[in-house]
Amino acid sequence: MSGSTFGLLFRVTNFGESHGPAIGCVIDGCPPGLELSEADIQPDLDRRRPGTSRHVTQRNEPDAVEILSGVYEGKTTGTPICLLIRNTDQRSKDYGNILDTFRPGHADYTYWRRYGLRDPRGGGRSSARLTAPMVAAGAVAKKWLQQRHGTTFAGWMTQLGDVVIPFEDEAQIPVNPFFAPAGEAKVAELEAYMDALRKSGDSVGARLKVVARGVPVGLGEPLFDKLDADIAHAMMGINAVKGVEIGDGFGVVTQRGSEHGDEMLPAGFASNHAGGVLGGLSTGQDLEVSIAIKPTSSIRLPKASVNRAGEPTTVETFGRHDPCVGIRATPIAEAMLALVVMDHVLRWRAQCADVALPVPPLAGQIAPQA
Amino acid sequence: MSGSTFGLLFRVTNFGESHGPAIGCVIDGCPPGLELSEADIQPDLDRRRPGTSRHVTQRNEPDAVEILSGVYEGKTTGTPICLLIRNTDQRSKDYGNILDTFRPGHADYTYWRRYGLRDPRGGGRSSARLTAPMVAAGAVAKKWLQQRHGTTFAGWMTQLGDVVIPFEDEAQIPVNPFFAPAGEAKVAELEAYMDALRKSGDSVGARLKVVARGVPVGLGEPLFDKLDADIAHAMMGINAVKGVEIGDGFGVVTQRGSEHGDEMLPAGFASNHAGGVLGGLSTGQDLEVSIAIKPTSSIRLPKASVNRAGEPTTVETFGRHDPCVGIRATPIAEAMLALVVMDHVLRWRAQCADVALPVPPLAGQIAPQA
Amino acid sequence: MSGSTFGLLFRVTNFGESHGPAIGCVIDGCPPGLELSEADIQPDLDRRRPGTSRHVTQRNEPDAVEILSGVYEGKTTGTPICLLIRNTDQRSKDYGNILDTFRPGHADYTYWRRYGLRDPRGGGRSSARLTAPMVAAGAVAKKWLQQRHGTTFAGWMTQLGDVVIPFEDEAQIPVNPFFAPAGEAKVAELEAYMDALRKSGDSVGARLKVVARGVPVGLGEPLFDKLDADIAHAMMGINAVKGVEIGDGFGVVTQRGSEHGDEMLPAGFASNHAGGVLGGLSTGQDLEVSIAIKPTSSIRLPKASVNRAGEPTTVETFGRHDPCVGIRATPIAEAMLALVVMDHVLRWRAQCADVALPVPPLAGQIAPQA
Amino acid sequence: MSGSTFGLLFRVTNFGESHGPAIGCVIDGCPPGLELSEADIQPDLDRRRPGTSRHVTQRNEPDAVEILSGVYEGKTTGTPICLLIRNTDQRSKDYGNILDTFRPGHADYTYWRRYGLRDPRGGGRSSARLTAPMVAAGAVAKKWLQQRHGTTFAGWMTQLGDVVIPFEDEAQIPVNPFFAPAGEAKVAELEAYMDALRKSGDSVGARLKVVARGVPVGLGEPLFDKLDADIAHAMMGINAVKGVEIGDGFGVVTQRGSEHGDEMLPAGFASNHAGGVLGGLSTGQDLEVSIAIKPTSSIRLPKASVNRAGEPTTVETFGRHDPCVGIRATPIAEAMLALVVMDHVLRWRAQCADVALPVPPLAGQIAPQA
């Protein structure tokens, strides 16, 4: 795992730049025989796509995925799968005024210090656009996991800025632009909140939750490739994420052990404070992950900064930006979770495919299968 | 990075078992020429050691480290460094009653489902004792980083169960058994809290903070080996950790972009909401990391569970355990942070050693040097 | 390093298929600041290109490389470099008769047994065409190494079938289609040999040599990432290679130690039986590598085989093939050697950039520099 | 795979130094449930051991292996297996005269240039003694492979210096000190040859062959983790190896394609010029590997060299050394081959465990099984 490559066995190498001709990824290690076409991938890309509501960046990228290799007669061949997404809507001129300055909260300054160069073109490799190929790769993993183990993934927003979103109904998630599991009243509240925010030129953060259900029990490789450690790595690596929780997360600080430890009954686990991971391995319960997304750094309000010579200046960002990056992050977080689970299922197969236990897992759980 | 090996260039392979004859690690890739002896490593191990107060596990392990290889005439040779810590105080009999059951909140059940075997000996590879070799390796990294870049590491407890610990004075951290940066009054409060907890037979969680100062700017390798992603991976991989934050962490959810974005002035950054990482690279500001540690699962209060045949049973844990695992975790978290920073400094050297910028970093910052 | 990714720090991920729309690679970890354009890469691709003489496959692929990312204002940015080569001349129909059979000497049978699928399209991922992106990546490495350390690479054929090619003159290598360091007489002999071979419908093997000059001393990481081990890995991985030698190679079997050990004098090494590697590290002398390339398996002469049902059949291959694969392999072997050296220079920088020796290397040698 | 760690899924980290207190390895990723004890490992170590005949180094190391972790009640647990071999017979004083000089043919000079330090203690990490832990790890792999797939490994010497050893009888291999598959007459010839060599104070090289039988078909991961590429990497990484061949090796240079391509019949392959690998994947036929081992560089005859100041000097090596390193290398080469095959079987399981082909492999072949 290094730089642009994610995963050990289900390996995804991400390439391309936000304002180059195309972005994409190469998936190495996908099991052969999986039926796969662009139609399996496009829906998740559409969920992520900018321009789907007035609340997100007004940029019209169709994000149409093409499978360039690794599939023959509709099935994966086991050889690398190359997915390509062409960039169509690039407006370099929107970035003209930042050529020599560093935007507070952005990677401009850090990239410059590391590489000795200033590449101002819309974020380049720090752009959130590069999450699109990961969403595409995640869709491939999701399909295989769903077919092989019945594993499914879901995600939703739990808080947008000051507005807490109680969980009402999962069926509402695809119906509103916020991925909120909530009814009309809450959605209206969110819309009003966002409209006010946009007018102010400012931005705000968000809290999301992603879950995986039907996860085989026993995934994870201590000491350092524990399932939760790899999940944390994947989540914190998503642009703008500043916090990751598994299960009750920071809520465990005040919990007692008598309360936190999830009891086991023949009928299954009695609770899930652990969030589906114990000792770094999956318990078979739902994997529950929460992430904190910081407010967009590109805002219309001026911020103090310096230029390359170290002289003071001011920065105001124009152009197209998300007032709340978190609104589009749910499909990304789901995809990253799917990639981690996929990688760990393959790792399990490598080491433990012939482990046979005489008793099944607890009720409602799935044993991994080779 | 896989299983028992941590890091890409400063690679630490952890070996041994909690109740075996010894534990240790192999450090591969350490730069040559560093003056190193056991005396550089032992202090951090002592800080972590059980039996240093009545609030932690009463087990008397001297945790004396021995350097078996990789050092000649007092300096690292560049060849692998093997550090060994012999186990002296093992009481297998304390674990006799768990042979056939699974302790809620422990890795027993998950290990059994993955490996098809039940190894009841004191946690085996899931034991927190295996953090000792990482603390040892971290001490080596700390020394090199301090000599080469002036980087230093510190850590402290910010909350123990219900008791919030406001930051008073860093000099107090080594003076009390809680790694609390607080004076006598607060320490007395913590001691009383812990005494009551021990009597009750229960346990509680904790919140810790670790910081790195004098971190060179520009460390981290997008997309997937971002500095914060690797930090999250290292922290979440520590036993009992359920949440990780960088900078303001989950506090960013309600922040406005106008507030969150750290402004830059010729004199340096004006704030550090980012916690020292932007776009996945270090900004040169203090790296600030917080972690949530769950309450110990080994408590004297009975919990419902099942045995291997799936029949209901009860579990009470006797023997020696920490009523609050978080109390000893500070040196561990510091060590893991040091290992991540070390690995990234070496990665920086590989790719960017010849990058030369005409202007220095912002005031108070350090440029990495080859 | 796994599957489609080569290298640890200078990482090249190869993608695409022989008969797909394009092939290419992603280079991760390239140092920033290197001046790079397509003009730096195209010449090596042209050397490798099919259709440059009547002795190689008559297929007209321009193999024009495009830099899709990683370069800004003519210099590498330090972010991933994506190189694309579009396929233009694909004749699937030439492969129609092999749909259900397995060609002896080809990967057909082994791929089918591993993946459970038969993908007959011109070799797919087993095609030698996939060496083109590696040649492109190798050109990038060559440029950086040449600029930074004065390292250069060369290669030539030492034997074609039964015809031994004594070394006459390096300047002749680009002048004839065989990469032979020989004058007109020998070239004429080779041409006649090849014409006879083509008429017969058969094929023959070849022996090549590649050298690197001006290699910094001290590259290589024992135990398992020794420079020669990584070179062997890279060379044996080239299609059709069945043997690899360093220095005197199999000639060492009969050598005495009194003869083999290269003596050191203040003026430099007295000989180079070692081929530039000792103890797995570079000595600073020329790296000398030889490889054996097997005869093409695609010949017009019929061979016995089986089909997927296990029934006997015969196979004759029509279409466009190299009567001697070895003729085009020299640029490929050079490229792979450059990639290995590049990776090791970066590794050296990571671990040893601050090692300073008071005395210079032996005369004529280069010390690595950060 | 880096430095001291070998393999991707069956990972072996080698630690310790030739003249330190102990050497050993950590095996990560071993499947659980394998019955394992020291008795499974010791025989291969004994085969490798010095002091077993007058023809090898007179050093009395019992090389007794101890299993420190990873086994419970006689079976592997799936957690890391630590194998330890204590050094008992160390004579540092034998190396006193090389403190400031560099022995031609040894790694002394290259290590000094890389690390900036001169560690004269008997080779340190460049010593062939460090192959012992790999032999131990290889024994674990051999057992699992033999139980799971019926795979077996064998090795023998095919040439010692000028003396060619035709293959007569595999049963003779363990009977003579040369691992020669030959009868008394040839053995006597070899003994006389060696006696003369020892008297002369010189050394000579050797050629070995190792084979694996009952190898599942379809192992290997193109492009870069082809089975033959990984075999070459493992073999060339063995101390003193300068050449590696698969199948007919350099013999393919003069072969015609009509002869080289192994035909397939319902009864199986008709020949094995390929040596068991096609397109980088195993064919199911015997894996046949040959290696060239250079003559020992430590000889009693003086060689010209320089000291650290670059001044000319002479080097004669006293102490205990092998006059022909190749004599003990057979168990090492077998072990490395076993480790590569093991790693690839686990990789196969990860990606292809659910691939089901309706027809079995060719007669006499084994399909891999999860």
Automatic annotation (TrEMBL), chains A, B, C, D:
Q: How is the cofactor bound?
A: Reduced FMN (FMNH(2)).
Binding locations of FMN: 125-127, 239-240, 279, 294-298, 320
UniProt pathway annotation: Metabolic intermediate biosynthesis; chorismate biosynthesis; chorismate from D-erythrose 4-phosphate and phosphoenolpyruvate: step 7/7
Which CDD domains does the record associate with it? Chorismate_synthase (cd07304)
UniProt keyword annotations, A-Z: Amino-acid biosynthesis, Aromatic amino acid biosynthesis, FAD, Flavoprotein, FMN, Lyase, NADP
| Cofactor needs | FMNH2
Instruction: Return the InterPro entries for the record.
Output: Chorismate_synth, Chorismate_synth_AroC_sf, Chorismate_synthase_CS
The record's GO molecular-function terms, alphabetically, read: chorismate synthase activity
Provide the function of this protein.
This reaction introduces a second double bond into the aromatic ring system.
Family the entry assigns = Belongs to the chorismate synthase family.
What is the name listed in the Swiss-Prot or TrEMBL entry for this protein? Answer: Chorismate synthase
